[in-house]
Amino acid sequence: MNVQLKLTRGMTAPEYATAGSAAVDLRAALDDGETVILAPGEKALIPTGLAIAPETDGVVAVIAGRSGLGVKKGVSLSNGIGVIDSDYRGEICVGLINHGSEPFTVARGDRIAQMFFLPVIHADFLISESLSETERGEGGFGSTGVR
């Protein structure tokens, strides 16, 4: 799949790190010398200097956190995941939140998130008075157990 890429803020195109990489890293497009310091509990919106145009409406770009930032620093996406619709043409920005106990500093070029593409299926919603029965039924919130 081809994706047109508009670069701003002096950024370069993202690359897959290995042949098996599912996602590309997104980097902070801050000005040289500029930093954003996230105190514990603080949120910030970080620009990436990238805008995209997938060749088809049948995909979505998904922004996910970087596991190392989450596990080691407590820094994750402020909204859990990001959804970049195929018709959005603005700059991709990443909302970060610091759940850790120490301040976290973001500088230009830091890898702050990752982006991957998935196919999109639009549902036809059919109103019904009842739904088909399953073994699980209406059980939720831990009804299938832990083990």
Topology (SSEs and partners):
Layout: E1 3-7, E2 24-27, E3 35-38, E4 43-47, E5 50-54, E6 59-64, H1 67-73, E7 75-77, E8 82-84, E9 93-98, E10 104-107, E11 111-119
Antiparallel strand pairs: 1-5, 2-11, 3-10, 4-9, 6-8, 6-11, 7-9
Question: How is this structure best described in words?
Answer:
This protein has 147 residues and is mainly β. It has a single domain (3-13, 24-119), classed as Deoxyuridine triphosphatase (dUTPase) (Deoxyuridine 5'-Triphosphate Nucleotidohydrolase, Chain A, Distorted Sandwich), CATH 2.70.40.10. Helices cover 5% and strands 37% of the residues. The protein contains one helix and eleven strands. It has one helix at residues 67-73; strands spanning 3-7, 24-27, 35-38, 43-47, 50-54, 59-64, 75-77, 82-84, 93-98, 104-107, 111-119. The strands form four sheets. A four-stranded antiparallel beta sheet has the order 2-11-6-8, with no helix packed on it. Strands 4-9-7 form a three-stranded antiparallel beta sheet. A two-stranded antiparallel sheet has the order 1-5. The longest helix is centred in the middle third of the chain and has 7 residues, at 67-73. It starts with a strand and ends in a 28-residue tail after the last strand. The relative contact order is 0.25. The mean pLDDT is 96.
